[in-house]
Structures are given as C-alpha cells and as structure tokens.
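Lab meeting prep.
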Amino acid sequence: MSSEELLGRVVEVLVTVIEAVGAAVIFIGAVWTAGRFVVDGVRHRDAGVFTPIRLSLGRFLTLGLEFQLAADILRTAVSPSFGQLGRLAAIATIRTALNYFLRREIDREQRQLGADPPGPAPAGRR
C-alpha cells in the first residue's frame, strides 16, 4: 500500500468520525431541546419561555453544521478533483449561509432576551 493510499484511508476514517460527531451534536441538541420544550410547555404557558430553548437548538445546529463542513473540507484535502472542489464550494456556501442566518437569529433573540427576560409577563403587560 502506498503512502497516498494510506493517507486516503486515514482521511476517510477521520471524515467518518467527524461527520458522526456532527450528526450526534445535532441529534443530541434536538432531543435535549424537545425534552425542554415538553417540560417547560407543561409548566409555563408563556411563549417567552420558549425563546431560550430555540436559542439552544440554534447553537446545537450551528455547531453540528461546523463539524459537517470540517468533514467536507477534510474529504477534499487529499487529491481533490475539480468536481469535488465544486461540490465542496457549493456545500460550504450553503452551510455558511445557514450558519450566518442561524447566528443572526440567535443574536437577535439574545438581544430581545436581554431587554425582555423570559417568563410570565409583569401584571401591566398581559
């Protein structure tokens, strides 16, 4: 086995591990967020309670997408073809756009939380 073949196999194993970590982060975030949604939904009826839950899910999604992008970059690190580079560019563009809009949403909601903390509304604002 040549050194290039060995490197290719090592990279494929690493790509698989990194993709699995990214998928696990997204899955764990979705399960954890669903659990919080159910528990807080039973305890509280105020929509403001759910904003921090949405922010948490957004953070999990952002982190998971970063792992997936890292795997895609690593996949094309060894002797990439023009087709692979084009695919990577398309995937990177889509995932970067998703991360950008997720980050914007998270920042906007965090600012709203700072101005209007979650929980039951004060008596004058119902």
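Slide two material, second protein:
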Amino acid sequence: MLHEAINWLVATIGSMGYSGIFLLMAMESSIIPIPSEVVVPPAGYLAQQGQMNMGLVILAGTLGSLVGAYANYFVARHLGRPLVLKYGRYVWITEEHFERVEGFFKRHGEISTFIGRLLPVVRHLISLPAGLAGMNHLRFTAYTLLGSAIWVTVLAYIGYFIGANEALIEQYAKQAVVDVIAASLALVAVYVWRHKRRIAREADQAR
C-alpha cells in the first residue's frame, strides 16, 4: 500500500509541480491526515533527479503547512471547543487526541506551536488549541513557519539522498521522527529552565 501511495504521489507531484506539494501539505497540516512522510520525500527524490528545485520544494511544503495550520486555527477560533469536538470525529479528530494536544499546549505555552509541528499526531492538531486561545498571529505564523520548515527540510533531504526506495524512506522517516522528538524534548527543557530562571529573577527584583 505504501508503494502504491508513493508512486501516486511521485506522479501527482511531478504533474502538478510545486502547487501539488503546497496543496498536499496544506491538507496534511489541517484536519486531513495525509502523512507528510509520504508527501515530501518523493519531491526530494524529484529534486535529486533534476526535475524540481530543492529550495522551492521546501518553500512550497512550508507555506502549504502554514495555510493548513491557519485553516485549523480559524476553525477553532470561530467554532469553539464544543463544536470542534462535536464535528471533529467525522474527520478523525478524537476527543482523546484533542485533549492530549490541548494539554500539551497548556503545559508548554505558545512555543508548543513550534515544537508541535515536529511531532506525529500533534502536528496537524496543535493549531486547534492555539486558535481556541486566540494566540497572537505574528507569533503563531513565526512558530509554525519555523517548525514546518525544519520538518519539511528533513523529509525533503531523506527523499533526496535515499531516492525512490520506499522501504528506506519509511525507515528513515521513522528515525527522523525519533530524532525530532528527542530534539523537541531538549528544546522544551531549555525553554522551561529559562522560563523558571526569569520568573525567579523577577521575583528577586520585586522584593
């Protein structure tokens, strides 16, 4: 099944070009669970073959992710939590997954919008709690673009160096997820440490 999906995506991206990457990544970043792991590597492979430009592949994927993230943001902002949960089950958003992502956002604050772009499952849902919280648009855009750019770049170069070998793409994509999760945890630890230090410093100054 993965083999057929990758062949179809290579053909689709090859025929639609960068707009195909943009649309598929916008879908992946919204409520439609298209795995980015089978969208971007084929484009990286086409770049290696000289049929696409790597920089434009990354740009199209990153901007598509931002558009999809904003679709979720506005849905949550204007519909609210009850309606998101009510209708989310029709597009594979379970209450369990939503509450997990919502808790992640509440624990880590707005930086979770960046970190969440690098994590499976969380990736296409993290914009919902950001929308519910009315997160500042500038910070939401910056965090989403940064996280998306990192993830799209990793996947594009997996496709570039591995080629069309779907078994290896799947293997290295899974390893990339593990590495990204480890890096994300390190970022969270640094962020929490700096946040606590700032609070302690402000408390000392207030005395």
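Talking points for slide two:
DSSP finds ten helices and no strands in the chain.
The mean pLDDT is 77.
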